[in-house]
Write a structure and sequence with these properties.
The protein is an alpha/beta fold. The chain contains 4 helices and 6 strands.
């Protein structure tokens, strides 16, 4: 042990600045806040987005877009997916409960059947909406489509 590897005992020193405790502390006088201005005063708070009087970004950038409050969100499911599901589970009727059990939609989803893919089975399909092509394809195979309300 010599002077080059001396260290203070653990817990004997603090890393916290003690502000406003006189000139001898090195942080007296202005208490590290600088001279004058609103930021040096007690009780200073800045509004969120305040940029020192400069026009704030959220006011300088123009508004953009439109959100339709009456929009209806649908969970889209294609005919090839329905074909696959009907083949694997040996089904003739497909409704929202079947799709929920298969993990393709959640309980509250509104389901729309889209006409992408090939359908070869005669099916009875119940959903909240159908595309024109999906409806034609299902009915061409003598299947039925039923639109669910709610």
């Amino acid at each position: 042990m010599d002077l080059s590897n001396l260290k203070p005992a653990e817990g004997s020193t603090k890393s916290v600045k003690r502000i406003g405790r006189g000139q001898g502390s090195g942080h007296g006088g202005t208490s590290t806040k600088g001279n004058k201005g609103a930021k040096s005063r007690s009780g200073y708070k800045s509004r969120r987005g305040f940029e020192g009087g400069q026009m704030p970004l959220q006011r300088a950038v123009p508004k953009f877009g439109f959100k339709n409050i009456n929009r209806k969100e649908f969970k889209a499911i294609n005919l090839d997916t329905i074909q696959e599901l009907a083949e694997t589970l040996n089904l003739t009727t497909i409704d929202t409960n079947t799709l929920v059990e298969a993990g393709m939609a959640s309980k509250r989803d509104k389901v729309k059947i889209l006409g992408d893919g090939v359908l070869t089975l005669k099916l009875e399909v119940k959903a909240h909406a159908f595309s024109k092509r999906a409806k034609e394809t299902i009915e061409k195979l003598e299947g039925t489509t039923e639109i669910l309300l709610n």
